[in-house]
Amino acid sequence: MAIKVAILGYGTVGEGVYKGIQNHQEQLIEKLGDAVEVAGILVRDPLKKRDVQPGTFITTRFEEILAIPGLHAVFEAIVGKEPGYTYLSQCIEKGCHVITANKVLFAKYGNELLKKSKQHGVHIGYEATTAGAVPIIRTLQELLKVNRVTRIQGILNGTSNFILTEMRANRLSFGEALKLAQDNGYAEANPENDVEGKDAACKLKILCQLAFGCTPDWEEVEVEGIAAITSGEVQKAEAEGFRYKHIADIRAEGGKLKASVKPIAVSSAHPLFSVEGVDNAITLETSLAGNLTLQGAGAGKFPTASAMLEDFSAILEKSLRTKIHLLSARVPV
Amino acid sequence: MAIKVAILGYGTVGEGVYKGIQNHQEQLIEKLGDAVEVAGILVRDPLKKRDVQPGTFITTRFEEILAIPGLHAVFEAIVGKEPGYTYLSQCIEKGCHVITANKVLFAKYGNELLKKSKQHGVHIGYEATTAGAVPIIRTLQELLKVNRVTRIQGILNGTSNFILTEMRANRLSFGEALKLAQDNGYAEANPENDVEGKDAACKLKILCQLAFGCTPDWEEVEVEGIAAITSGEVQKAEAEGFRYKHIADIRAEGGKLKASVKPIAVSSAHPLFSVEGVDNAITLETSLAGNLTLQGAGAGKFPTASAMLEDFSAILEKSLRTKIHLLSARVPV
């Protein structure tokens, strides 16, 4: 019997998840034992033409998604806190696993949702909220359990990094580089969240909660974007061997957490010095492993879908394993 | 009751594991529910002074390690295929989990050991065999299950990378750079395995088996070290914007695996261009995530111990989870 999933929102990310599922059925069947069926897609405009298999159930009504019998998991790829939060809460209450790419929602309601998911015996995947395809969430959750993480530094906004790279490498002004980012589809029409550091701050919040189990007083955290950096400053830094990088930084110092999100001119000795273009990267300082850096695509259709589908596969395997243990243990009864 | 472990071999890595366990008891207790006790250490020279807690059981006889009652896991940090293979086989047969840093052994006998471990219901951790603290093995095993990995490129030998970096950045000759590596403790007195590419080839074999489930005909694989590279070639490449990197490469092409291990002059567009010094790094090409690069310490006392202790924690949690499920399921009986 196919594993039934639904996709909430069919923009770039939602479509990436849909196509990713279609193109990776072989892997999914091998890992999960069954094919994955997209049993419903929630959209805003029902009339828009979409490249989906004939007969795919498309609706504008969330209740109809929730009513799908035997729904295993929901991929949420909507923008903004609402209606995402309401939808995810209802899915969890119904016993449905949830995979989200919604960083604004998760930075705000992550703890509530995780608590609720425990109560209802389901899992939440949120790898896609932070640094696109880079598996930083699950590296922290699963691969670094003995190490103490003492500092996280990240380039968490691809648009800002693209702009800074263009200003340096091709001597563009901020305005020209921003326009190029928009022309390439990297930046939103309203680029405020990206270039003013809000997007990076949101992701840092998620990483901080995960790595340190608490957050600093965000009202006091310095959050500065890249909009005020001039071409002259970038050129001057380069002449001296430095590069401006927009770095989200959180570190444990003397029993307290210190955070900042701002552009910094780093030397070639800094682990994020050579991260260029739209890539994201994170350097973890740890007690045993030393510095670990993960780098990859910070956004985009398939990179974001990658994070969501890997979450999905891990969650399904986990819940499958539990069931097998329970079943096999019950055999003697 | 403490979780009992033994350490086979007490060189740099064995000592790193011992100290790592002592310094991370809090983390281990939190994750595993119990303290971890080093119940035995296998050494060659019983008289050598070692900085271990008074009363620690130290022996030169493997049988005495194997006879420790209730031994949960063994950390193997011996050099060479034997006696490591015999020891690990016996541990597995006894129902003991095994964590190894021995790449020569694992490249040769990995498949046999994995098969044997399945038969005996135990786990093998081998993260430390490849790229030190960089969690490439478990990233491939656990974080990339839906993605198809199509190519792996790695800087897998820190000594070679250090030498190439010094030849470029400080204009040393190969001989001078090698001597510096030896003075810094990076290179063995006999550096053949490192500078002739054998060490990197060994690690590539392990990655290849894991990622592709099979290996190319290794007799036909080009394995070339860095010993023949001249200072002049390095300078010429740099003047043209290139850097020599010793790259272990394996890719799926037309249904066949193609591998090579050799120095390549790469441009700044290559994801491994800026990996310098003793670091290791691996770039994975994948079907959904695109290019993912992981970078960190490729060797050393604590980085290697990090990989082994993270393996240990994951294995213990896994086997603990199975037991809890079985127990909780049996309650109604």
UniProtKB/TrEMBL annotation, chains A, B:
What is catalysed by this protein? L-homoserine + NADP(+) = L-aspartate 4-semialdehyde + NADPH + H(+)
Keywords in UniProt for this one? Amino-acid biosynthesis, Methionine biosynthesis, NADP, Oxidoreductase, Threonine biosynthesis
Q: Where is the signal peptide?
A: none
Cite the annotated pathway. Amino-acid biosynthesis; L-threonine biosynthesis; L-threonine from L-aspartate: step 3/5; Amino-acid biosynthesis; L-methionine biosynthesis via de novo pathway; L-homoserine from L-aspartate: step 3/3
Question: What Gene3D superfamilies has UniProt attached to this entry?
Answer: Dihydrodipicolinate Reductase, domain 2, NAD(P)-binding Rossmann-like Domain
Top-level class of the enzyme under EC nomenclature? oxidoreductase
Q: Which GO terms describe its molecular function?
A: homoserine dehydrogenase activity
Q: Where is the Aspartate/homoserine dehydrogenase NAD-binding domain?
A: 9-127
Q: What is its EC number?
A: 1.1.1.3
Locate the Homoserine dehydrogenase catalytic domain: which residues? 135-311
As for family, the record states:
Belongs to the homoserine dehydrogenase family.
Known NCBIfam families for this protein? PRK06349.1
Instruction: From the Swiss-Prot or TrEMBL record, give the protein name.
Output: Homoserine dehydrogenase
Which organism was this protein described from? Heyndrickxia acidicola
* Lineage per the UniProt record: Bacteria, Bacillati, Bacillota, Bacilli, Bacillales
